[in-house]
Write a structure and sequence with these properties.
The complex is a heterodimer of chains A (about 270) and B (about 170).
Chain A (H helix, E strand, L loop, with lengths): L1 H9 L1 H21 L12 H14 L4 H21 L16 E11 L5 E6 L12 E4 L3 E8 L4 E8 L4 E5 L5 E5 L7 E8 L9 E4 L11 E9 L6 E8 L8 E7 L2 H14 L1
Antiparallel strand pairs in A: 1-2, 1-12, 2-5, 3-4, 3-12, 4-5, 6-7, 6-9, 7-8, 8-11, 9-10, 10-11
Chain B lengths: L1 H22 L16 H5 L6 H19 L4 H21 L15 H24 L5 H26 L5
Helix pairs in contact in B: 1-3, 3-4, 4-5, 5-6
Classes of the chains: A alpha+beta (about 270), B mainly alpha (about 170).
Chain lengths: ~270, ~170
């Protein structure tokens, strides 16, 4: 017994280190896994508070640029109203499903240089933001909410190696999964596009309406390069994002009216299998 | 004297966290290099201080940074790792005499300081990026990030030590 106590006393630093390391490791695995409630996120009163304090100051630096982006968006929306039709540039190819509603929010913290990037928003549960809602900017897709607190929400950016967004070609409806290989900011990879699909540089990629996260036809980006090895059945495609992730500030959170019901149904089907 | 030391460490903790999350996390040299200054807290923690206490504080420090950057527990893991190996690093860079109360990092020979700071930073970054990228296939990316970010973090820390060390007579 004494031996054991001595052993613990002698190695107490190592044991303490091991214990805390296991905790950190579990937190890391937890943050990597999708669909698990996260313990440590920037959506809480302390980091949210510090970030909104910072953004209150730094917001003034790029007011002009942000105003221009918003004016451009207004211009586009006005053109749509005036013409009664929708142009190729900038907006969904069909009228949006009325099941979706949009909540505007401001990005108070943004990172884009790591392999797992997150953004923090200044709205949370109080403004009916929930986990798994999609987030877009006026130019295109930004990410998906992965944690919320009362006043803040944390978003998993599309520039995150864990992100997976279903995307398709605007012209042909061939769909694949959008991932990121962490090599270049604003360039993401579209995988699982079958070799039958016609692919050309400059093709527009939009979201696919099959999930409740994004409505169909939200812009993502354009094909910047693609290749297919002769013995492979799928293309690997690089997509240049429309949204400049380094300067995104005003975003819209998309909520689907029937999302809980659809998710409930999908879960039941999954469990039945 | 004791409480003064404690106060200095509390102030240092808060300052380093704020500098890290508000300034350095927004810095992206060459697109992806994001220097980390906060491990400096662990490096300059009183050399004869309680080791278990240092590991616990490092955990809190890392977890605070993790909370701000949504990174799970990667900074916490890297921080407790260097807190744990610090006595070994101290012994190899300054010799056994570090245990005597006389040694101060800022008064040690510059070459020894460099070895100590860069060894600790590279270990910290290696654990950090291995946990963050978390993929054996990306080992090159891990090593590249560790090396380049490590150089910048190290330089930043050397300058901070030079700037903030009190002139001792």
């Amino acid at each position: 017994m004494q031996q054991i106590i001595f052993f613990f006393l002698r190695n107490k630093n190592f044991l303490l280190f091991l214990f805390l390391f296991v905790i950190s490791f579990m937190l890391t695995v937890n943050s990597h896994s999708y669909h698990e409630s996260k313990f440590v996120t920037s959506a809480n009163f302390l980091s949210g508070g510090v970030y909104s304090f910072k953004s209150n100051i730094t917001d003034y630096f790029d007011l002009e640029e942000q105003n221009e982006i918003l004016t451009k968006e207004n211009e586009r929306l006005r053109a749509i109203i005036a013409n009664g039709s929708i142009t190729n540039e900038g907006l969904p190819s069909q009228v949006l499903d009325s099941n979706y509603s949009f909540i505007s929010a401001k990005v108070i913290n943004n990172n884009y240089a790591r392999s797992k990037n997150y953004l923090t928003l200044n709205k949370g549960k109080q403004d009916s933001l929930k986990v798994d809602m999609g987030v877009i900017s006026s130019q295109g897709v930004v990410g998906i909410i992965n944690a919320t607190s009362n006043k803040y929400a944390s978003i998993q950016s599309v520039l995150n190696t864990n992100s997976q967004v279903v995307a398709k070609f605007k012209k042909s409806d061939h769909y694949g999964t959008l991932k990121w290989d962490a090599n270049a900011t604003n360039i993401v990879q579209l995988v699982e596009i079958p070799r039958l699909a016609p692919v050309a540089v400059g093709d527009t990629i939009v979201t696919d309406g099959k999930s409740t996260i994004f409505p169909e036809g939200i812009l993502i980006g354009t094909v910047s390069s693609f290749e297919r090895k002769p013995d492979e059945d799928y293309y690997s495609i690089d997509v240049q994002l429309f949204t400049d992730m380094t300067s995104v500030k005003h975003v819209y959170v998309i909520s689907h009216r029937d999302a809980p019901e659809i998710q409930q149904l999908e879960k039941e089907v999954e469990n039945a299998e | 004297m004791q409480s003064n030391e404690t106060l200095v460490n509390i102030v240092r903790f808060i300052t380093l966290v704020l500098v890290q999350v508000l300034i350095l996390n927004q810095v992206n040299l060459a697109g992806y290099i994001n220097p980390y200054l906060y491990p400096l807290f662990i490096l300059v923690f009183p050399l004869t201080g309680n080791k278990s206490l240092l590991i616990l504080i490092s955990f809190a420090l890392g977890l605070t940074i993790d909370m701000f950057s949504d990174s799970g527990g990667v900074h916490a893991a890297a921080s407790i790792f260097i807190a744990w190996v610090r006595p070994v690093a101290l012994k190899y860079s300054f010799g056994v005499s570090y245990q005597l109360n006389t040694l101060k990092i800022s008064t040690a020979p510059f070459s020894q300081q460099l070895i100590y700071i860069f060894a600790m930073v590279l270990m910290h970054h290696l654990v950090l990026f291995s946990m963050e990228i978390f993929n054996v296939n990306q080992i090159l990316l891990i090593l590249k990030s560790t090396l380049f970010t490590g150089i910048f973090s190290g330089i930043l820390m050397v300058f901070s030590v030079l700037l903030f060390s009190r002139k001792s007579t």
